[in-house]
Specification:
The complex is a heterodimer of chains A (about 70) and B (about 140). By secondary structure, chain A is of the alpha+beta class. Chain A contains 2 helices and 3 strands; from the N terminus they run E-E-E-H-H. Chain A has a 3-stranded antiparallel sheet, with no helix packed on it. Chain B has one helix spanning about 80-85, and strands at about 1-5, 10, 20-25, 35, 45-50, 60, 90-95, 105, 110-115, 120, 135. In chain B, the strands form 2 sheets. In chain B, strands 3-4-5-6-7-9-10 form a 7-stranded mixed β-barrel. Chain B has a two-stranded antiparallel sheet with strand order 1-2. Classes of the chains: A alpha+beta (about 70), B mainly beta (about 140).
Chain lengths: ~70, ~140
């Protein structure tokens, strides 16, 4: 992982079109300002991973899975 | 009402059994009406969350007690406004994979259900909670 130090008000530029600015630091919280083209979707990682996990959870169970699950939970 | 389900064919469900998701299941924002379907006498307490709008949309829910003895989430601000007054119950969305050992539940983003108002929401909790917690712990009995 690349680790860089930035002060409040300073900015990183990603891939030419995405800017991340440190807006505020307070205790263990950092507020970031993000400027990006409209096609770039920005998610909090836990939301992004929850969406991905929800999609996996919506998959139909393979035949026999349920019986297998129930057999393990007593 | 007549309901076409993904896993149980056609069922008749009372209108007042419909649960309204005031906070969406993330990634499925357009689906807000679901019913809980459970099989009588089934072990493990699994429940199916079936969309009333889309027959093919269904989730398997697991009671938290099955994986965590003491699951007492601190709900984010605004949850009471979303769900209204009442007693809240928690359900975990399960991702069942093959082989079954790879199956997981999401402790970070439970479904919170208010039986009094028949409202529900998926909430993303603060703090370090696993999004993919194995449904079966290592060393658990497999017989």
């Amino acid at each position: 992982m690349l680790i860089l130090s930035r002060k409040v008000g300073e900015t990183l530029v990603l891939d030419g079109g995405i800017e991340i600015t440190v807006a505020e630091v307070s205790g263990d919280k950092v507020k970031l300002g993000i400027t990006a083209p409209p096609q770039v979707k920005v998610y909090r990682k836990e939301l992004y991973e929850t969406i991905r996990e929800n999609r996996a959870a919506a998959q139909q169970l393979a035949p026999g899975s349920l019986e297998g699950l129930l057999g393990r939970i007593k | 009402m007549e309901l076409l389900t993904r896993d149980f064919g056609r069922l008749t469900v009372a209108e007042d059994q419909v649960v309204h998701f005031t906070g969406p299941i993330l990634g499925f924002e357009e689906y807000r009406e679901f019913v809980f379907l459970c099989q009588q006498g089934q072990e493990g307490g699994f429940t199916w969350l079936q969309s009333t709008q889309e027959p093919g949309l269904c989730f398997l829910l697991v009671p938290p007690e099955l994986v965590e003895q003491d699951y007492r989430p601190t709900l984010p601000a605004g949850t009471a406004e979303l769900l209204g007054e009442g007693a809240y119950a928690y359900w975990l969305l399960a991702s069942i994979r093959q082989p079954l050992e790879r199956s997981t539940v999401n402790l970070k983003s439970p479904i919170v259900y208010n039986a009094t108002q028949r409202t529900a929401a998926q909430v993303v909790l603060e703090g370090r909670l696993p999004i993919r917690r194995p449904l079966f712990q290592k060393g658990a009995s497999t017989c």
